[in-house]
Specification:
With 623 residues, this protein is of the alpha+beta class. The protein folds into 4 domains: 3-31 and 151-194, no CATH class; 37-144, Sandwich (Jelly Rolls); 196-301, no CATH class; 318-589, no CATH class. It is built from 21 helices and 9 strands. Strands 1, 2, 3, 4, 5, 6 and 7 form a 7-stranded mixed sheet that branches. Strand 4 (85-94) and strand 5 form a beta hairpin. The chain is globular, with a radius of gyration of 28 Å.
């Protein structure tokens, strides 16, 4: 088939996919509107059928709206108030068996927006709105109209596009799984970026945004009203598509400078270099006079693309572990972090790629050491550890490369000394300042958000009670390890949007465990010697120790018998090293070809990621 005919076929397929997506939007998500479309606005007219009645309801007021049974898709309320407040909705709904029941909803009003929207999506006969006595309702609107949701249409189109691509390019995807990962991560990750609301939902996203925003300026940082809202988490909460449009308009209109901050230096610190793509996007949007929310979306998208590119290269160049790397790269929590303001995705991608380059040296003992590969591995791990140096012990695995890979003993020892020097230099960036402050009696460090935290005093406490801290550390790590490595919070969890503990989580877990034990027989088994595995186990424990100790020093009140701040997502960069420890190359998958094996892994990862995006992002934020 020549390229012109192939292009024509793909173009026709793209048109058909678009038509199917629009058709699904009409027939599935707008089916009730096609049967009975309406838009009714009620204003207060005491006890008249064309309005709603207001009654005293304890310390509050209650607006009661009674109407003939109908399917209510959207509820829109206009308040007259100059403050933010919560209000309740009591609904009389009718189910498919014509049984009537009562349910409750809560929402918040923001004076900056002036009105609120709720997704009802139920047959109803009565709505009661309970709100503060000092507030007035101007109007209540119920509607069931045909509305095209572009994000929903794109989600359907991208999902169908993936199915079509995997069918037409099944040999490419089946034989080279990294391309399946690339297509899936780019398309589904793009939907995530488009759907994520501006009222930050990821971990400490306002802090990461502020750092990227500051790095996008030179010596003088100018905060607009919109930027200051994001920095201080003062953005109205959105849970409908209409709410989000209103918030985007608010942020795009607030372009006056409200605060200026002069930086000590325009130099980007080592830890801040993970924010360069996000800072560049914010700078570019500002320079080109694009909308503020366009800059937010572009910053998230560039962060996603850096993550996807590094993970793609890790899978592509990996001589062992391509399938497990694909699953780790497609884990919903990993992609969610990449689509948000965060440096966690940067750390995961760079550290994973660097570790893959190191592991490749163990895949073929007949080859001499590949210096370009070693250099790439060390550099990328160092770049990833600029943001979180606790993962730097992973480069110590280089010290256990078999002697057969070197030309002589001198070369081997010079290489190991060089690795140790890099390790010590990186460790000194966060260990040395703490030790210096402790020895000089300077009380420094701790959680900037407050509390009785101090790195110096906490370190002194550990030195005074070493046995007690070791006991606390060991008991905490042993107790949390199963949940942190295998639990839903490290794989099917979207921070403040929630997570899936059911089908999607178990599918992700089962496929991960399946691949962990069987991948070694589907490709050339990685010949890690027992002493190398023991060394890797010690390295992993060292990283875990640094993670917990760093959080104990920084975020835990001095002397507390618990370690605060450690979250399962910090274990994501360790998943590949841990799986290398448990695989043995003995569990075989009979009658399963590499082609089918790759398909199983890839399709499972896509189903889990797409399901999480639909359930925990599109439905609560973009419908």
């Amino acid at each position: 088939m020549n390229w012109k005919k192939r292009l024509l076929n793909h173009s026709i397929a793209a048109v058909i996919i678009l038509i199917i997506s629009v058709g699904a939007e009409m027939l599935i998500f707008n089916s009730h509107a096609l049967k009975n479309s309406y838009n009714i606005t009620y204003r207060e007219k005491n006890w008249m059928s064309s309005g709603f009645a207001v009654r005293k309801y304890g310390d509050n007021n209650a607006a009661v709206l009674v109407f003939d049974e109908k399917y209510v898709n959207k509820l829109n309320i206009s308040f007259d108030a100059d403050r933010s407040f919560k209000y309740e909705i009591v609904l009389n709904t009718v189910n498919k068996f014509d049984h009537e029941s009562e349910g409750e909803l809560t929402d918040r009003y923001y004076p900056e927006i002036g009105e609120t929207f709720l997704n009802i999506e139920k047959r109803s006969t009565k709505i009661k709105i309970i709100y503060p006595r000092d507030v007035t309702i101007e109007s209540i609107n119920i509607s069931n109209e045909v509305k095209f949701n572009i994000i929903r249409i794109l989600f359907i189109a991208f999902s169908l596009g993936l199915l079509y691509s995997f069918f037409t390019c099944r040999r490419l995807v089946g034989d080279r799984i990294e391309y399946g990962f690339l297509m899936s991560a780019v398309l589904l990750g793009s939907i995530m970026v488009l759907a994520l609301p501006e009222d930050f939902r990821s971990w400490d996203e306002q802090i990461h945004f502020n750092r990227a925003y500051m790095y996008s300026y030179g010596d003088n940082v100018e905060y607009t009203e919109a930027a200051w809202r994001l920095k201080t988490l003062d953005v109205p909460y959105t849970d409908t598509a209409e709410d989000r449009v209103a918030v985007q308009k608010l942020l795009n209109d607030e372009d006056d400078i409200v605060k200026e901050v002069e930086k000590d230096s325009s130099f980007i610190t080592y830890g801040g270099r993970a924010y360069i793509p996000q800072a560049f996007a914010l700078w570019l949007a500002r320079t080109c006079n694009w909308k503020f929310t366009t800059g937010i979306m572009l910053a998230r998208y560039l962060n996603l693309m850096v993550y996807v590119l590094l993970m793609f290269l890790a899978i592509k160049f990996a001589k062992h572990g391509k399938r497990i790397l694909t699953l780790i790269g497609l884990m919903p929590t990993s992609v969610f972090l990449a689509a948000s303001f965060s440096y966690d995705a940067h750390v995961t991608a760079f550290v994973t790629f660097g570790f893959v380059m190191i592991v490749n040296e163990f895949a073929d003992l007949s080859e001499k050491i590949n210096w370009k590969r070693i250099f790439a591995g060390v550099v990328t791990i160092v770049l990833g550890c600029f943001a979180k140096a606790v993962y730097i012990p992973l480069i110590l695995l280089l010290c256990f490369i078999p002697k057969e890979k070197f030309y002589d003993a001198k070369q081997k020892w010079m290489f190991r000394v060089s690795v140790v020097i890099v390790f010590l230099v990186m460790m000194s960036t966060f260990v040395l300042p703490a030790l210096t402050n402790a020895s000089s009696g300077v009380d420094a460090g701790g959680d900037a958000r407050g509390g009785d935290t101090s790195v110096t005093r906490q370190l002194e406490s550990i030195i005074e009670h070493p046995a007690e801290y070791v006991e606390l550390f060991v008991s905490t790590v042993v107790k949390t390890a199963p949940d942190y490595f295998l639990g839903y919070q490290s794989r099917t969890f979207f921070a403040y949007l929630g997570g899936n503990k059911g089908t999607l989580f178990y599918l992700s877990l089962i496929v991960t465990v399946f691949v962990a034990f069987t991948e070694g027989t589907m490709e050339r088994h990685l010949p890690l010697a027992r002493k190398t595995k023991l060394a890797l186990a010690c390295i992993v424990m060292c990283v875990i120790g640094l993670v917990w100790t760093a959080l104990y020093l920084d975020f835990t009140p001095v002397g507390l018998n618990v370690i605060n701040g450690v979250q399962p997502r910090y274990y994501i960069p360790l998943m590949f090293p841990v799986i290398l420890l448990i695989e043995n190359g003995r569990v075989r998958c009979h009658r399963v070809s590499n082609f089918r094996y790759n398909q199983i892994v890839l399709y499972a990862g896509i189903i889990v990621l797409a399901g999480m995006i639909y359930e925990f992002l599109l439905v609560p934020c973009a419908f």
